[in-house]
Structure formats: C-alpha cells, structure tokens
Amino acid sequence: MANNLDDSQAELDSVEAELEMVELQISELLEKQTKLNSRKNKLLQNLEGACSSAQSSGSSKPPKPSFSKQDLEHYEESDFSWSKEVQAKLCSVFQLSNFRPLQRAAINLSMSGKDLFLVMPTGRGKSLCYQLPALCSKGFTLVIAPLVSLMEDQLMYLKSVDVPAVTLNASSTKEDSKRVLAGMIDKNSPFKLLYVTPEKIAKSKLLMSKLDKAYNMGLLARIAVDEVHCCSQWGHDFRPDYKLLGILKRQFPKVPLVGLTATATSNVLKDCQKILCVQEPITLTAPFNRPNLYYEVRFKDNEDCTDQIAQLIRERYKNQSGIVYVFSQKDAAAVATDLQKKNILAQPYHANMEPSDKSLVHQRWSSKKIQVVVATVAFGMGIDKADVRFVIHHTISKSIENYYQESGRAGRDDGSADCIVFFGFADIFRISTMVVMENTGQQKLQNMVAYCQNVDRCRRAMMAIHFDEVWNDDECNQMCDVCRHGNDYITMDITKHARDVVTIVEMASSMDEKLTPLKVCDAWLGKGPAKHRKTITVTSLSRLEVESVIIYLLLHGYFSEDFSFTPYTTHFYLKLGRKAALLKNDNHSITMKMKRRVMSHATVKKVSESAGEKSSAKVEGKRPADSDNKKSVAKKVKTLP
Ligand SMILES: Nc1ncnc2c1ncn2[C@H]1C[C@H](O)[C@@H](COP(=O)(O)OP(=O)(O)OP(=O)(O)O)O1
C-alpha cells in the first residue's frame, strides 16, 4: 500500500514537472507568435504601401486629390437642391432647430452619392446623418447595426417621430419578414429605413435577392453601416460577420455607403475601407473633444473603492443619473449590492441577465426610478440618456477607445459631467489575462495604463495622440485633473529602486520561481514568505509608490509579462524585460513622475531635499523641449516646499 502511494506521488511529481515544462513552452511559443505576427503585419504594411504606390504611379488616371478644407466648406452650404427639404424635415420630423458640427456636411455628401466614413464622438448625433437623408430620398436606406437591442431602440425612437422604419432579424415572425421583403420592392416605399444585423446579410439569400431587385428598381437609396469599426480586427469591438459586408458594395456599387463610428484610428478606417470594398471614401472626423466632460483618474489605495464611489455619488451627484462600470458580472452584482446598502438606488446590468431584466433596468434608469446602473461593458451601444452626470470606472477599461466610448455616455445634453477612473494595481493584471488572446490587447491595455499613470500631460492630449488628432493642451480649459491640479507631481530618481526590484525578480527566476506582480510587491515590502530571505533589499517606499514603480518598469520594458496557462485560468507573472540588462550599467538612470498624493511623506521630503540640490539643471538639460513650457518638470521640482 505504502509502495503504491509512493509510486503515485512520484508519478504525480513527474507529471506536474512535465506540465510546467509544457506551460513554459506554450508561453514561449505564444510570445514567439506575437513577435512573428507583429513582424508579419509590418511586412504586409510595407508590401501594401509598395503596391499602392506602384499602382498609382502606373495608372493613367491622375490621383484624386484628397478632401480639402474648401471641399468641406462647399458641403457645409445649404444651397443644394435638397437643402430646403432637409432643413424642413430637421425641424418638422426630428424637432431640431440646428445641425451640430459636421452633420450638414455629412448629409450633403451622402445626398450627393458619395461614400463616407463619419467619425464622431459618441452622442453627437451620427444617426441623424443617415436618417434625415433616408427621409429625403426615394426608396429605403439599409442600416446594418450590430445589436438587436440597438435596432429596437432606434425603431422605438423613429416610431415616436413618425418615421416608418422596420427590422429583419432572427426574432422577426414569418409574417413580418414577408411584409418587409415585399415592402423592399414596393415603389410606394412603405418604410424609409430597414435595420438588419450583419449576420442577416451573411446568411439570408432571400434578403440578398430582394436587395438585388430593389437595387435594379432604384429603390435601395443608401447603405449605412453603424459601428463600422466592428469590421476591423484592429478595432476594439471586432465582429466576424462584419467582415462579410464587402458583398454590399460589390453587388450594389452605385449605392452610396456611409460608415459610422465614434472611435476609429486611421489604420482601423483603412482596414474598414478594404473590408467594405469602398473605393475612395471621404472621411469626416468631428473633433474628438467633448468640452463638457471632466476627466479624472484616482488611485485605488486598497482593493475596493466602492466606499469612495458611494461617497462621491451621495455628496457630489445627489439625485443625478450615472453609470458605474465594473470588470465582471460578479463585480456588477457585488458593487450594486454594496451601493444599495449605502442607500443608493443602484442596479446591476450585464450580458448574462435575461433580456427582459436588462430592459427593465434600462427603463427604470432612463425614467430616473434608479440613480445608478452598475454595469459591465454590455451596457453601452444604444444607451442614449441625455442627462448622465457621471461615469465612474470602478476598474480601468481595456483600451483608450473603450474608455472614450464608455465615458462618452456622460453629458450628451452638453451639460457638464464627470468621467472618473479608479486605477488599481491588481486590475491591470486581471484585464491583461483577459485580453491575452486579442491581437493587440496588451498594447492597448498598456496605453490605457499609461493614460492612468500619467501625471503631467493633459488627459485629452493622451486621447488625442491615440486618435491621431492634433491637440493644444490649452483647449482643455482645466477640464481634466492634470490641467486643473498642474503642480501635483514630483520627479523622482528611481534607479536604485528599479535595481532592487529587478533583482528580486531575477533571483526568483534563478531559483525557477515565478512571481506575480502582487508577490513582487510583497517581497519588496518585506512581506509574505520572502521576508525571511535576507538577500532582498526591503524598500522604504509605500505600497502605492511600489506599485507605481512596478507599473512604470512594466510600461517601459524593464519588466514584461509572462503568462502561464492552465485549463481553468491564465496567470500573470513578471519577468525581466528587454531593458532590464541596462540597469547593470552604472551610468543608466531612470526618473519617473509621481503624483504627490500617491507619495508617502518620507519620499516627498527626500525628493524635495535632493531636488533643491541638483535636479533642475539635470532635468532641464535632458528635456530641452520642456524648458519653456510652463508645466516643465524643472519648474515643478523648484516649486517644492
Ligand atoms: N442637431 C442636433 N441638435 C440637438 N440634438 C441632436 C442633434 N442631432 C442629434 N441630436 C441628439 C439626438 C440624440 O438624443 C443624441 C444622440 O444622437 P445619436 O445619433 O444617438 O448619437 P450617436 O449615434 O453619435 O451616438 P452613439 O455613438 O452612442 O451611437 O443627440
């Protein structure tokens, strides 16, 4: 019996050892795959660039000039043959008196038969840009929308303003489908808008054949692709069925297409253009800036920030509507319960709820019966409540695009509203393991983390860089925490700290031990099992400082992520990054800017003493570009008490 047990134990040890090896190999292979994919994409981009320049130089046609400022001015005018009708219907049907920026140009371009990509911040009125042309054109407009709930919201709204619109989706009854299909080829056009999901286009031959007939009868007026970024796997919300929408332009080349999105970088749009087979679309990009939104990041100083959120809601947003975004369905339920216990009318919302429960929460929130929806990202598209005064992120978003869109649910009525993120150390790694299989998931998350960790650049500037926009920080108008509390940071030399913490990871790795970021923190702070190891230099930094330094080192390549996969979960470990070896060099130094409120009193004192002695010359010498900037690092250091 004893022998049997020994044998089993020995075999278990050996299987575990082998499994560990396999996991290591898998993570190495995944790392290799990521590198190869990024190399492949670079090569593809080079090839594509070479091909298109060869094509344009070989073609006899002169290249078309891009859409100029004068062109835009032309399309902003109101003397087109349809202008009177458009203006009249804006007032009589939609009950609006004026266009918002770019709406008129988008409508005129679309009415002129041009293909168009419209990038406009969430809540600025993209829908009007295809709904109004639909009303002023013969036949009907085909609208592709990603979610049935989103279509239903639109249909409800259109019904309320007496615009005939229908949908064809998986839950349409046979009679409804029959009526809609017949209406598509009815010269009297019983409806002006037909909403379908991309799946319907991909799967329904009957629909395609009716579209074909309508096209030949001149009744297919326009195609609108809502949330067009879903076409591209580089976008933040890729839907495989969007990939098949290229068939529309191939089958109906003369029908103008308008693609609408709130968030798409130029690369994503290029990808969408290719996927949708649109030859030369005009892209109209409304300024990404929402001047009425105040952006703020707060550090989570312990795992749960619900108390702080409750306090904010009670004190700052009494009787005002808002959203609290959370990471998981479990968090949605837990945070909603916590808020309820603190007498806040909050309810959870997530993808796993019954559709009827979801729409009940939505309705109760819209009619102000509840104050707060505690939601996962499932609460997003189609949410059109005008007076949302706060969007609080209990956990950071997985990318800046996601954050921009989620926070953009605030202040649609142009009244001021707050967008606050609670930035927690452990959350980074929870999200990182969740996006591990996404194409550019880690990079996008790192950008979001950099947005949160940032203490010296206007938050809008960080977003502008992301969306390839030109941005002047003064335009922020102190509507972000960085611009408002400009001198709230200190520049700190962290070279020694970096060496100490890198040594901890290095030592662990030499003993074949993997450390999660939390274990690294504990070890460095002299806590946990590591406290018995005399070889570790325990830090005098506070926990928040320790976390900030580790994040900095991760963002700057001194550490990198080391994923380990089990059938049930993915673990995140820290390993040495490509720049870790630089720390062996005595001359290598690292400085980081840290929020003063994050720093412990001892550190502030230490930094300010040394700042007085030497730092201004050093920093000014290193950052000439900042020297005449009123927010320069040197000035910050000099202003210390
Ligand atoms: N010209 C206008 N003047 C005043 N309000 C307008 C105007 N155009 C649209 N709106 C209102 C109608 C809606 O309540 C709100 C948002 O419009 P909507 O078309 O749903 O935004 P959107 O499509 O850009 O947002 P999302 O990205 O969330 O889909 O703005």
Structure overview:
The chain has 641 residues and is α/β, with parallel strands linked by helices. Strands 3-4-2-5-6-1-7 form a seven-stranded parallel beta sheet, sandwiched between helices. A six-stranded parallel beta sheet has the order 8-13-12-9-11-10. Helix 10 links the parallel strand 5 and strand 6. The radius of gyration is 28 Å and the shape is globular. It starts with a helix and ends with a helix. 39% of the residues are buried. The C terminus is likely disordered. Bound molecules: 2'-deoxyadenosine 5'-triphosphate (DTP). Pfam families: DEAD, Helicase_C, RecQ_Zn_bind.
Tags for this entry?
Arc Repressor Mutant, subunit A; acetylation; disordered C terminus; Rossmann fold; 14% strand; 3 domains; seven-stranded parallel β-sheet; 641 residues; binds 2'-deoxyadenosine 5'-triphosphate; alpha/beta; globular; six-stranded parallel β-sheet
Low-confidence stretches: 51-65, 611-641
> What is the global morphology?
globular
Top-tier CATH class of the largest domain: Alpha Beta
Biggest sheet, spatial arrangement of strands? 3-4-2-5-6-1-7
What's the Cα radius of gyration?
Answer: 28 Å
Mean pLDDT: 85
The number of distinct helices, counting runs of at least 4 residues, comes to 24
Structural class: alpha/beta
Strand proportion, as a percent range, falls in: 5-15%
Count of DSSP strands: 17
